[in-house]
Write a structure and sequence with these properties.
heterodimer; A: about 325 residues; mainly alpha; 5 strands; about 10% strand; B: about 300 residues; alpha/beta; four-stranded antiparallel β-sheet
Chain lengths: ~325, ~300
């Protein structure tokens, strides 16, 4: 069955390898250039905490790297969704499932290799991107931000496994390739956005810091900002007359007479700025939690797929 | 003679429709059995149940000594060819031979090469580019390469032109004729569904007639032919005949009555002219008995057309 799986996917496998090689060449060449710049110029200026307008890379490359967040979706879309659906559509499952092999074995072997292929592809791209992003992340200390977090280290592997499981499950339930592809695409994008936006900042209780108005505060290293704003001495945001705003918060009633420059008045009345964030030290914990969530979801989807396909008539 | 297929009360219901109802049949070893009946009669359902692709709602089947199931040992003994001739269209016949070799314990890939070579069918072209007849031949050869003991063929002739039909049936007959595979033991039994009674009559020696999701006839074709007669006589009461024999179909015009009867002995009344029907006429008689619309419906029309063309 392993050989059969290889025979059915060898062209797609070669194509995927070729695309990966092309990406690797681009990232290796530019990445080596980056590393060189980093060591010669940037490391020294960063020590002085001032690198001026120095920029490490072009917008095109940045877009390409951010764009690799689509990579984990592709195997699920092109291999996962058709895996069962295309067989059911063309009836070839009747050929496959009347050879001297059980449906379970057919499913286990094919699903297993596809999951592995998706994980390896996403992992390899992620490894490249992680290496490439090293200097950039060090310079801007933004490795924890959504666009970087999503394409580096281990989370892309979790995404790829999930996308593959979603594709296979959608194909098994819908029995049509095109709707399965659409559901995989929509489901993956929606869930990724939902989790990155709403769930990820709250994997752990964020750290809160308070500092004086008009002051500046930046946590060490790359952090994930959860919320920021102004609170009064009672710990609640200011309530104002409306119309006048200072740093995104309404100017409180007590400072109504100095709305043009309310900061000294507000500070005098105990108003402070606050920031809640996930510190850089939690990066790997967050990578682990997010990967775990997607792997568990994938396991549930595969469980449904097996249950449906083993019970239902071919 | 031992029965290769033995079903009792086999029933398959989908959400609303009953595809097969209380099907009790028996097919002896070594037979080529024709499975005939109108569209929706349950032929495909029966074949899929026997192949283990579907599970029955009620009743059971014993095929080659066991229930049809998802089990390598069982599947190795069954050759199933679905109606749409499902093959991987982008793969070549050669690829399919290799796939079969990986998935079957008693695979005879050489036989496929020989068979297709004899028919001058390219082994190295994607099967999607072959003609319908060639694809059917490839699929049959692959099914036979499993060296099954029971071959289940669902409408293999439907998409074929008369020439391809003849060559397909010849290949089938030849496969059955080559008996005595020592390793397997016992001959090949075939259950083949088709609308084209005139065509399969030449190779089949057993008949199962399904109509309205029920078995109407199951038996040796010679016996079936011997048991049925057309009785033509002046228009009159048929209760005397009905008491002695089973009237399958009654056709009354102003002047005369024609009956298709299943005999229970000789016809005593000399008023009836006795005629031997052919298999197709018998089958049509049963089909129109079950549902009066069938006689004039597309199914009946198609069968008649085949009969006239012969």
């Amino acid at each position: 069955m392993t050989w059969v799986t290889w025979r059915l996917y060898r062209y797609q496998g070669v194509l995927a390898a070729a695309l990966f090689a092309a990406l690797a060449v681009v990232l290796l060449i530019t990445g080596l250039h980056l590393a060189q710049m980093w060591h010669s110029d940037l490391a020294s200026c960063l020590k002085r905490s001032s690198c001026g307008n120095l920029s490490l890379n072009s917008p095109v490359l940045t877009t390409l790297v951010v764009g690799t967040s689509a990579v984990p979706l592709l195997p699920g879309l092109f291999w996962g969704a058709p895996m069962v659906a295309h067989e059911l559509e063309t009836g070839t499952n009747q050929f496959a499932w009347t050879q001297s092999i059980t449906r379970r074995r057919w499913l286990v072997v094919r699903t297993g290799w596809l999951l592995l292929a998706a994980a390896v592809l996403a992992g390899a791209v992620s490894a490249l991107v992680t290496w490439w992003s090293g200097p950039d992340n060090a310079l801007y200390a933004n490795g924890f931000e959504a666009n970087k977090f999503d394409v580096t280290d281990i989370v892309p592997v979790g995404y790829a496994v999930f996308a593959m499981a979603l594709g296979i499950c959608a194909g098994a339930l819908l029995r049509r390739t095109l709707p399965a592809v659409a559901v995989t695409l929509a489901g993956f994008v929606a869930l990724r956005a939902l989790i990155a936006q709403w769930l990820r900042p709250h994997y752990m209780t964020p750290v809160a810091v308070y500092y004086k108005l008009t002051g500046l505060y930046a946590p060490n290293g790359s952090y994930l900002s959860v919320s920021q704003g102004i609170v009064g001495p009672n710990g609640k945001p200011p309530v104002g007359l409306g119309g006048y705003v200072f740093n995104g918060a309404p100017v409180p009633t007590v400072c109504a007479k100095v709305v043009q420059n309310p900061a000294p008045c507000m500070a005098a009345h105990g108003y402070r700025e606050y920031l809640t964030y996930q510190p850089a030290s939690r990066f790997w914990a967050f990578q682990g939690i997010e990967t775990g969530i997607f792997v568990v979801l994938a396991a549930v989807l595969l469980g449904i797929t097996f249950w449906v396909l083993m019970r239902r008539d071919a | 003679m031992t029965a290769v297929i033995e079903t009792s009360g086999l029933t398959k219901r989908y959400r609303r429709v009953t595809a097969l109802s209380d099907c009790t049949i028996s097919v002896p070893e070594g037979r080529i059995c024709a499975l005939v009946g109108p569209n929706g009669a349950g032929k495909t359902t029966l074949l899929r149940l026997l192949a283990g692709l579907a599970a029955p709602t009620a009743g059971g089947a014993v095929v080659l000594g066991g229930a049809p199931r998802q089990d390598p040992a069982y599947l190795a003994k069954i050759g199933f060819l679905a109606q749409e001739i499902p093959l991987y269209r982008r793969l070549t016949a050669q690829d399919h031979i290799a796939i079969g070799a990986h998935l079957n314990p008693r695979w005879d890939g050489e036989s496929v090469r020989v068979r297709l070579g004899g028919l001058k069918i390219a082994l190295d072209r994607p099967v999607g580019t072959l003609s319908g007849g060639q694809r059917s031949q490839v699929a049959l050869a692959l099914t036979l390469a499993k060296r099954p003991r029971l071959l289940l063929l669902d409408e293999p002739l439907a998409a074929l032109d008369p020439l391809a039909r003849r060559s397909f049936l010849a290949a089938l007959a030849e496969a059955v004729a080559v008996k005595g595979d020592g390793e397997v033991g016992g001959g090949l039994t075939v259950l083949v569904s088709s609308h084209l009674i005139a065509d399969i009559e030449r190779v089949c020696d057993h008949l199962i007639l399904l109509a309205g999701s029920r078995v109407q006839l199951c038996g040796d074709i010679e016996t079936v032919l011997a048991e049925h007669r057309f009785l033509t006589g002046p228009r009159k009461d048929t209760t005397a005949i009905a008491r002695a024999h089973a009237i399958v179909q009654e056709d009354t015009t102003a002047r005369q009555t024609t009956l298709l009867v299943r005999l229970n002995g000789p016809v005593a009344d000399p008023a009836w002219a006795v005629e031997e029907p052919n298999l197709e006429e018998i089958v049509l008689g049963y089909m129109s008995q079950d549902d009066p619309a069938d006689g004039t419906g597309p199914e009946g029309a198609r069968l008649s057309a085949v009969g006239e063309g012969r």
